[in-house]
Structures are given as structure tokens and as C-alpha cells.
Write a structure and sequence with these properties.
The structure holds 2 protein chains of 2 kinds.
Chain A lengths: L6 H17 L2 H10 L4 H9 L18 H14 L1 H9 L4 H7 L2 H12 L5 E4 L15 E5 L2 E12 L6 E7 L11 E7 L5 E5 L11 E12 L3 E2 L5 H37 L1 E2 L2 E2 L4 H29 L5 H26 L10 H9 L8 H12 L4
Parallel strand pairs in A: 1-4
Antiparallel strand pairs in A: 2-3, 3-7, 4-5, 5-8, 6-7, 9-10
Chain B lengths: L1 E5 L2 E3 L22 E3 L1 H17 L2 E7 L5 H10 L3 E5 L9 H12 L6 E5 L10 H9 L3 E11 L2 E7 L5 E7 L2 E5 L11 H6 L7 E2 L39 H14 L5
Parallel strand pairs in B: 1-4, 1-6, 4-5, 5-11, 6-10, 7-10
Antiparallel strand pairs in B: 2-3, 7-8, 8-9
Helix pairs in contact in B: 3-4
Classes of the chains: A alpha+beta, B alpha/beta.
């Protein structure tokens, strides 16, 4: 048992922290969030420095690192700025499916482009009628000669309006029993005829990240755009959730830590009734609760990521990490706003943004209820 | 161009709560974050830029505790070619004369054209290491350098003066320069850089390797003796302004005008 980061991991964490401190400007963040704009210039720089696609193999433009190192980076990014951090954490969303199951050609073309800041990826799983339950898809892909023809609508698609490539979960065998055994993943590129994307609406948080409805009307792609095995799409996506949930958990830990840092600073400076807020026991207890939750969430997250990198796939553990880190992020950011009082409610003081950005971590990549189902399911088998 | 850059690991005290140690001779370091001295970071960047432009190699060196290796690895990840540590044990408690003595021994081990150091260190603020080092080496030196132009065996350097003035000096190589912040924009450490240096060996030299004998440096050999640190008591000059924000703002403006801050 060893709870120390390696030298290299410490260096990576420090490099991420230095980059975020230097580049994540508060005024810029407030402006981007107002405009619902992706932090494009910062994303480009982050890619040049190797922060994106760190877990891709070196031959495909990555750094040959793991989910763990990726988690360290997104945690530091979200700690400095919840909105920019989340946008950067998600810019290569679902690319892991390509990394694990793509052909050599697919990996050469897409992974290198994603890591170097030439492409943004999106995973299209959720549908208007299938949110948490993706066992049956309405979106279909039908083989026609050398092509797949994709039809259907996906919603709440992260990066939907800014993505250059879409990994689409389709029903390729509607007659399969159960339905999920007839699902496959099809790669669709931006600009294909028949593809349309529109933002789902103005959002409470993660406003620098696009969340869109993406529709496919007889979109034709080459047969070679199948990712992984035909009929295995559902399994590939579930496997992906094991790493993506650890990464989302890391964003939640970072968001919580960032709000905590700001609240602690404020509590040490602000004086009321002749003493610092930090000298009141009520504040001290809040700080203690927040710090404890953050560390518990961090340890669960690190363990989930560490296990994944060692090939120990444990959906229970990643669900625990995602569920608890999300809960910690919401609870800690809530208390941070409370500590800042009236100022906490003002945009300028940032913690309200962390509060709004925290909530999504209990919803996307599997709601907390779905995570609990997964956790409970490993203890209590279905009848 | 062979360049040696002297760096130091210092605590980040700018935004931290700083508390004195019970003996009053230092600050409590337990809860502080440490990193490269800000001025040194600019010096490392400048050295790497000179190397990129004129060829040669950059070596970074430090005298400090084992943890200083983090700082050296960071410099390597930025693009320095080699790093070397000097075993701190015999230098413990050394004043800038002792540190400069050790660094001079190191600088003599190779034919360096240039030795760079930060203009001062964020922790003790002496600003002496570079000039004293130049004295030991018998080399010319320039302080508060804000630009370096290489012209064969000579360099032209700009020095930052008060009042927005700049002095241009011609300096013969080899020379020692102390670097002012703002001379460049230091690069970020990339993941590629970190990966490249992860198995790089950082040798640790003993005092004998750099020509320093037992007892020649360290607390007992110091020319300067620090008597202690203290936090100055709050002065009576401070005026707390109370009232509505607009009134307070007006009052601040009046005070600044009274003292000649604005016309």
C-alpha cells in the first residue's frame, strides 16, 4: 500500500496546476460562460503541451499514460476553473472507445488529431426516449453495400455542436434479443450530409461545453467506419463508462477543491462581530466537513482510476467514485456559497459558478441513481 | 554557448499565511507549497532561449535539500540539458557567501560561457548570490538584466533601472548575469517534457568535488549571521476608512491626491 504519487505524477499535477494558473483567466471565464463559448484558444495550448489524450499510446500522438494521470490533470484544471476545466476534460470525450476498439487506420486518423488539437470528439449514446437506459436504441444503422446508413436522433450530446467526429451507438440488428446485443458503434464525421446539431437549450452550468441534440437523416458513411465489433456496441460503451466515470469523478473532486480553496481564503479574511469567520466554530465545522468529503471523494476516484489502469475493471468502484465525488462536489460548493454569504451569490466571487457546474456531475455519465443501481447490483443479484 | 543556471527551491509565501518558527530564525514550512524561485524561472527560460538560438547546452544546478530535485526536474522538462545537485549537508545554514563559494566551484568544473542566476530569491531576498559568485570567479557581472544579445565573444545586456530607465552594458564572456523577472515569458512544462526527463539521472556532488573543504562553508563559516525574523507591528500610519463605498472611494482619491499620487 502506497498513497504517494510517483515523481512523474507529481510533476504532471504541478504542470497542470501551473498551466491552469497561467491561462485560466477569471474574466475570460466569465465572458466565455456568458457567451456559451468553448475555450478554444486554451484548448489548443493544452493540446500543444500534451494535456489532452495523455492516455493515448505514443504512436497515436498520446503520452502513453493512464486514466490516473488524466484524472490528476482534469482535477487541477477544474480546481482552477470549473467551467474551463470541464470543457477541457470533455474535449476528447468517448475517444477512448476508438483507442480501445478502433482499427489502426481509425486510431491513426482520429486519436492523433484529437491529441494535437485538430479535432474534438463526441459520444452519441443518449436518445430522447432512452436516457439512463440505453439497452434499446431508436437510432439505426443499416448496411447498404459498402456503406452504413444512419438514421435517428441523439440528445444531450456533449460537444454536439463543436465536435468533428461522432461515435454513434446504433441499433444494427433491430431483431436481436435482447436488443442491446444488436447494437454497434458507427463513426460519423462532421460535415456528412444529413447530420445536424443544435444546442439543447440555455444551461444552468458547464456553459463552456456544448450540449446538443444531434440528428442523423440517412447519413451515409463507409462500412469501414464501424468501431469495434458489430453487435458489441453496447458492451464497448459500458466498458467506456468505467473509465469515463472515473474522469468525471476527478472533475467533481477538482470543482469541490476549487470552491473549498476560495471559501477557506474568504473565511480567513472576512471579519464579522470582531473576529474572522474562520475563528467561529460553525465555520470551522463546515471547513472540516468539506475537507473530509473532498479527500474521501479523491481517494475513491484515485483508486478507481488506478485500478482501471491495472486492468482491474470494477464497475462498482467507478460508480462509487462517480456517485460520491458528485455528491461531494454539490455539497462542498453549496457550503462554499454559504460561507461567502451574499458575496457567494455574486458572479464575481466565482463560487456560485462552481456550485452550478457541480450539479451536472450528479447527472451526466450516469445519474447518481444509476450509479447506486450499479453499486447495489454487485451486492444484491437480480432475481 | 555553455550556460550554467543557478536555481533555488523556495516556499510560496505570497498568498500563504506565514508564521515564525518558535526559535524566531525562520518560518514554519509545514503547510507551505514549494517551487522554483520566480526569478530563477526566468533565468532558466532565458538560458534555454539562448541555447535554442546559438546552440550549446544548459546545465541547471542547486544547493538545497533533497526535495530540490523537483525543481531541477522541472527545469529539465522545460528544456535544460543537464542538472546537478550539490549535497546540502555541508552547506546547511550557509549565507550567500557560502552558497556562492560552492557554486563557483561548480562553475569551474566546465568551460561555461555564461552563468545565470535570478536577480534575487523570493525567500530571503538577498540578491547576493550572483554578484558574489562573479567575485569568486573573477568574472564580470551585471545585475537586474532584462535582455541579452550575443555578439561573438561579447554580449550586450540591458539592465532595469528606476524611473523607466534602461542601461545597456557591453560585457566580456565569460560572465555572470542576474536575471530580472519579465525578461521573457517562461514556457509551461509540457507532458512531453516530463516524459522525456523521467529517467534522467541527476548527479549529487560532494563538497570535495567542487573544491570546498570541510568547515569552509556552512553556518560556522558565515560572514553574515541572521539574528532572527519578526513580523513588524502594525504601524500607526494605517487609517481605516469606514462608510458607503462611494464615500470611501472619494476619500481614497483625496488622500492619493494630497500625497501627490495623481495630479
Amino acid at each position: 500500500m502506497d498513497f504517494e504519487l510517483t515523481k512523474e505524477q507529481k510533476d504532471i499535477k504541478q504542470a497542470a496546476s501551473d498551466f491552469a494558473e497561467g491561462e485560466f483567466d477569471k474574466d475570460l471565464a466569465m465572458q466565455l460562460e456568458k457567451e456559451h463559448a468553448f475555450p478554444r484558444a486554451i484548448w489548443k495550448k493544452a493540446c500543444e503541451l500534451g494535456f489532452v489524450g495523455m492516455h493515448f499510446p505514443e504512436e497515436y500522438g498520446g503520452q502513453g499514460l493512464g486514466v490516473f494521470e488524466n484524472a490528476l490533470v482534469v482535477e487541477e484544471f477544474c480546481r482552477r476553473d470549473s467551467g474551463i476545466g470541464t470543457a477541457l476534460a470533455l474535449c476528447d470525450f468517448a475517444s477512448e472507445i476508438l483507442m480501445r476498439h478502433g482499427t489502426k487506420g481509425q486510431k491513426e486518423r482520429f486519436l492523433a488529431a484529437i491529441a494535437s488539437g485538430r479535432m474534438i470528439s463526441a459520444g452519441c449514446f443518449t436518445e430522447p426516449n432512452h436516457g439512463s437506459d440505453i439497452t434499446m436504441m431508436d437510432t439505426t444503422a443499416v448496411r447498404d453495400g459498402d456503406e452504413w446508413v444512419v438514421n435517428g436522433t441523439k440528445t444531450f450530446i456533449t460537444n454536439g455542436c463543436i465536435a468533428d467526429c461522432f461515435i454513434v451507438l446504433c441499433q444494427t440488428d433491430p431483431a436481436a434479443k435482447p436488443g442491446y446485443r444488436g447494437q454497434s458503434l458507427i463513426l460519423v464525421e462532421k460535415g456528412a450530409a444529413g447530420i445536424e446539431a443544435a444546442e439543447v437549450g440555455d444551461k444552468m452550468g458547464i456553459r463552456m461545453t456544448s450540449t446538443a441534440e444531434v440528428s442523423f437523416a440517412s447519413v451515409r458513411v463507409p462500412a469501414a467506419n464501424l468501431i469495434g465489433e458489430e453487435g458489441k456496441g453496447f458492451y464497448h460503451v459500458l466498458e467506456f463508462f468505467d473509465e469515463s466515470r472515473a474522469e468525471i469523478a476527478a472533475t467533481a473532486v477538482g470543482i469541490a477543491q476549487g470552491a473549498f480553496d476560495r471559501a477557506l481564503d474568504y473565511a480567513k479574511q472576512r471579519e464579522q462581530f470582531g473576529q474572522r469567520l474562520a475563528d467561529f466554530q460553525v465555520t470551522q465545522h463546515k471547513i472540516a466537513d468539506m475537507a473530509t468529503m473532498i479527500d474521501a471523494a479523491r481517494l475513491l476516484t484515485y483508486r478507481a482510476a488506478w485500478n482501471f489502469d491495472r486492468g482491474k475493471i470494477d464497475p462498482k468502484l467507478t460508480s462509487m467514485a462517480k456517485y460520491y465525488a458528485g455528491r461531494a462536489a454539490v455539497a462542498v460548493t453549496d457550503e462554499a456559497v454559504q460561507i461567502l454569504g451574499g458575496y457567494g451569490y455574486i458572479l464575481e466571487y466565482e463560487v456560485e459558478r462552481f456550485y452550478r457546474d457541480a450539479k451536472i456531475t450528479e447527472i451526466y455519465e450516469g445519474t447518481k441513481e444509476i450509479q447506486k443501481n450499479t453499486i447495489a447490483g454487485t451486492f444484491i443479484k437480480k432475481k | 554557448m555553455e550556460i550554467l543556471v543557478c536555481v533555488k527551491r523556495v516556499p510560496d509565501t505570497a498568498d500563504a499565511e506565514v508564521a515564525l518558527r518558535p526559535d524566531g530564525r525562520g518560518i514554519r514550512e509545514e503547510d507551505l507549497a514549494f517551487g522554483i524561485n520566480e526569478w530563477d524561472n526566468y533565468a532558466v527560460e532565458e538560458a534555454i532561449r539562448l541555447k535554442e538560438k546559438h546552440g550549446g547546452a544548459v546545465t541547471v544546478a542547486t544547493i538545497g535539500p533533497a526535495e530540490s530535485e523537483d525543481v531541477l526536474r522541472r527545469c529539465l522538462a522545460m528544456g535544460a540539458d543537464d542538472a546537478v545537485m550539490i549535497d546540502e549537508a555541508s552547506f546547511r545554514g550557509a549565507d550567500p557567501y557560502g552558497i556562492a563559494r560552492g557554486l563557483a566551484g561548480l562553475a569551474r568544473r566546465k568551460a561555461y560561457d555564461l552563468v545565470l542566476a535570478g536577480a534575487l530569491a523570493g525567500d530571503d531576498g538577498y540578491g547576493m548570490t550572483g554578484p558574489v559568485l562573479a567575485g569568486y570567479l573573477g568574472w564580470p557581472h551585471a545585475t537586474l538584466v532584462t535582455s541579452i544579445e550575443v555578439e561573438g565573444k561579447k554580449i550586450a545586456v540591458a539592465r532595469e533601472l528606476e524611473g523607466g530607465l534602461e542601461e545597456i552594458l557591453a560585457v566580456e564572456l565569460p560572465a555572470v548575469l542576474t536575471i530580472q523577472t519579465g525578461i521573457n515569458e517562461p514556457r509551461y512544462v509540457s507532458i512531453m517534457g516530463i516524459r522525456k526527463v523521467r529517467s534522467k539521472d541527476i548527479p549529487v556532488l560532494a563538497p570535495a568535488d567542487i573544491g570546498v573543504g570541510a568547515g569552509e562553508v556552512g553556518e560556522n563559516a558565515n560572514l553574515l549571521r541572521s539574528l532572527g525574523l519578526s513580523t513588524p507591528p502594525a504601524g500607526a500610519e494605517a487609517v481605516m476608512l469606514k462608510g458607503a463605498p462611494a464615500e470611501v472611494a472619494q476619500r481614497i482619491l483625496d488622500i492619493v491626491k494630497e500625497r501627490g499620487g495623481v495630479a
